[in-house]
Amino acid sequence: MAAGLLVSVGIVSWQVSKQFKNNRKLQEERIRSDLRLKIYNEIDDTAQKLSEAEIIASNFVRTLVENLKHCLNNQTLDYRLWLVGKDPNKFNQLNFEVGEAHGALLGVLERYEVAFPDLQIFRTAFNYAHDEQLKSFLSLYPELLKVLPLVVLKEFNDGTDEKHIYQKLPNEELLNTISELGKKYIEANSMISDFIYDLRVESQNALLGELFSNKVKRRKPLDPSNIVIKTEKSDIERLDNFFHKETDWGRRISKIEEEVSSSFKKIDN
């Protein structure tokens, strides 16, 4: 009888222990699920701000070029009405907001690198895309200064409201130059938009796929030369090699790293 009691106590103890372990495992899985959802929401919210910033900046250029073309083809129009809200300071601010949102997204990806290292290829991709976007801005901005209204700040205007000094409409040659540079600027922003889409796909699959037992399909561009960011090991290696060895940005970064490394070696010697 005593032996039977001991067996019963042992079985109960084993069941309690097993239940405790199962409950702890469920608790840990719930914590991990909550953390995955938190990380995804933070990535998505920050990516959305970058998406909104690049769309607004692109629309500024797109509507400006369209308005200039319209005014050039209809010279009886008061072109000043078509340039309301279009000044260099505004464009500079919009582009600054793209850069600011880009930096915020990189910060989020860096913060969670230990949890999901495969997503870090996006830091490289966005750095490359932002470099292309910045180069296109620096080419376009000086040309826009030739046609956009010049702003006289109220500090230099006897304390009254800002004034705008309107310039002449561009000739066809200048407008064609602005149009081509504007197209490159919009294309650079579109690349950022594409990478944001890829980030959402890969982060959903990595962070939420197990929760919903589903996978989001990757982007399939009609132009095969368009870059699609994927997080399989072979794709990460291929993309990393492309960005660092086959782009001006990558070669420039490598050169800077070599110069810094060489400087430290000289100091050590």
In short:
The protein has seven helices and two strands; from the N terminus they run H-H-H-E-E-H-H-H-H. It has 269 residues and is mostly helical. The chain has one domain (38-258).
Strand order, sheet with most strands: 1-2
Strand-residue proportion: under 5%
Sum up the overall morphology in one term: globular
Number of helices: 7
Number of strands: 2
Poorly predicted sequence stretches spanning 5 or more consecutive residues: none
- Number of structural units classed as domains: 1
List SSEs in N-to-C order: HHHEEHHHH
- What integer value in Å does the Rg equal? 28 Å
List the defining traits of the structure above.
mainly alpha, about 270 residues, single chain, two-stranded antiparallel sheet
Question: What does this protein structure show overall?
Answer:
The protein has 269 residues and is an all-alpha fold. The protein has one domain (38-258). It has 7 helices and 2 strands; from the N terminus they run H-H-H-E-E-H-H-H-H. The chain has helices at residues 2-73, 88-111, 121-144, 172-207, 209-212, 233-245, 248-268; strands spanning 150-152, 163-165. The protein has a two-stranded antiparallel sheet with strand order 1-2. Helix 3 runs antiparallel to helix 4 (172-207), helix 3 (121-144) runs parallel beside helix 6 (233-245) and helix 6 packs across helix 7. It is globular and about 70 Å long. The mean pLDDT is 85.
